[in-house]
Write a structure and sequence with these properties.
Radius of gyration: 19 Å
Low-confidence stretches: none
Shape: globular
CATH architecture of the largest domain: Alpha-Beta Complex
Strand order of the largest sheet: 1-2-3-5-4
Oligomer: single chain
Structural class: alpha+beta
Number of helices: 10
Number of domains: 2
Largest sheet: 5 strands, antiparallel
Strand content: 5-15%
Mean pLDDT: 95
Helix content: 40-55%
Order of helices and strands: HEEEHEEEHHHEEEEHHHHH
């Protein structure tokens, strides 16, 4: 099924077929949709979350299994599954009905105090990293191998993307950051991680962090992938406060810079290869900085470190 076929009309038919108690509730698109899943609002209090491809469907079972366990232990709300949908109406994968969480994606919201937002997010992640990870899901290739080794992405995309920015950014410095990141690894017990900490997965109410959504990439492993937001969203004092509050070791921050660098490079490469808009793709993910600025932020931080 093509993601463009996942419409509000399809979602309404699925609800009517499988959950008739909600069939009269209106189904509406959300302001900023994800890539792995298509989300709709169901009435005032519920949301529908439909995987957009076969590779993303296994996350439904993961979120149904683990979010009820994680949610009571976290300092901000996360999605609460209330029903598990099955394939139907031509839609081939399982899907979820969750409680609706109010708020505006942080990439679209006006953050009144970026420093406070950074501290709230650091407290959320720090709490998540401290939860009991026994039996949690390992890093999975289908979900970007988040929590796994950064070397997973040491392939032809990196030199190709680096060539695309030559003349605009110091590619020697880019290579140094990347190799520094690859030279380190997580050498402690694996921890819970979110896996996709971007502005589109952080909700804000009145300019403050109100909820964290989309745990499809969550896993138990190396949390460095969660740190990319330091350079895609924060800056100056907010980046420093976020880093200081998490108090992770320098090797983990080096890998975090590697993750941010990789994200920026592939955003540029894929947009150019596919004829897309690299700036638009960054905004869609909820970044406050464009990919080139992200790379410059990473390089500057690497020099200071």
């Amino acid at each position: 099924m093509d993601r463009n076929e996942i419409t509000a009309e399809l979602a309404s038919r699925l609800v009517a077929e499988q959950f008739p108690q909600w069939e009269r509730l209106p189904v509406r698109p959300v302001d900023l949709n994800g890539w792995d899943n298509t989300t709709f609002r169901l009435g005032d209090d519920l949301s529908i979350r439909l995987p957009s491809g076969a590779g993303y469907a296994p996350a439904v079972a993961k979120e149904q299994r683990w979010l009820p366990i994680l949610a009571p232990q976290l300092p901000k709300p996360v999605p609460e599954p209330v029903a598990l949908g099955r394939p139907g109406c031509g839609y081939p994968w399982p899907w979820s009905v969750n409680r609706w969480l109010p708020g505006t994606p942080a990439g679209l919201a006006t953050i009144t105090d970026l420093n406070a937002f950074a501290l709230d997010l650091a407290d959320f992640l720090g709490t998540l990293y401290g939860l009991d990870a026994t039996g949690g899901p390992p890093p999975e290739p289908g979900y970007g191998h988040r929590g796994g080794p950064l070397s997973t992405y040491d392939d032809e995309e990196i030199p190709e993307a680096t060539g695309m920015i030559a003349g605009r950014i110091d590619v020697g410095a880019v290579a140094e950051v990347w190799q520094t990141a690859l030279a380190t690894e997580w050498d402690r017990a694996p921890v819970w991680l979110h896996g996709d900490v971007v502005g589109s997965n952080l909700l804000a109410v009145d300019g403050r962090l109100s909820a964290v959504i989309d745990f499809g990439c969550s896993a138990v492993g190396d949390p460095s992938c969660d740190l990319a937001i330091t350079w895609t969203f924060f800056e100056g004092d907010s980046a420093r406060l976020f880093r200081d509050r998490l108090a992770l070791d320098e090797a983990t921050w080096a890998r975090g810079r590697g993750w941010a660098l990789w994200k920026a490079l592939i955003t540029i490469r894929r947009a150019r290869v596919n004829g897309g808009d690299e700036y638009g793709d960054a905004r869609r993910a909820g970044w406050r900085h464009d990919p080139y600025q992200v790379i410059e932020n990473v390089l500057a931080d690497h020099r200071q470190s």
